[in-house]
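Standup notes
- DV: blocked on the single-chain target, sequence here:
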Amino acid sequence: MVVAGLFGSSNMHAQHYEREQVSLQHALAFVPTRKGVEAVDHERMTASLALLLRQMHLSEQDLPHILVIQPTPEVAHATGATQSTVRRANPSGGPVYYELWIVGPPKPAEYITGLHLILEEYFSVQISDADRKSDVLRVMRVMDATVSAHGNAGAHGGQ
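- DV (later): unblocked, structure below
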C-alpha cells in the first residue's frame, strides 16, 4: 500500500475548516467502475470500516469523506498509480477528504490497510506497524467468517 502524499500537502497552511460530522453510512463514496474492472463489494468495505472503527475504539459519527476509486489499467497507468494507494486531498484549501485508489482486483488486505491508514491520519492516532497488521488481520478474519450478501463465505479475493 503506497501512502506517499498522505501526510503532506502543498496546502498545509490552508484556511482552517471545521470537521463535518460524517456518519459511517456517508463516509464512503464509490466512483463507478468501468466495464472490465472487478468492483469492490461496497457492503463488505463498509462493514470492514465499521469493524476497524470498533477495533481502534473510534467514533462512527465523526468520519472523513473517503472517495474509493478503482481505475481501469489505462487510467492507473496514466496517473502513475502502479499499486493501491491512499491520498489526502485538500482542493483549494477546502475541507480535507481522502482518496483510496484500488489498483487491480480489490484485495481486502490492501483496502483495509488503506482505511486503517486514513483513520490513523484523520484521528491523529499513532499505531505501530505490528498493531496495524494485527488490526487488519482481525478485521479480515471476521469478514471471512461472515457470509456476504451474495452468500459467499470467506471470498475475500486474496491477500
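- Follow-up: The first strand starts at residue 28 and ends at 30.
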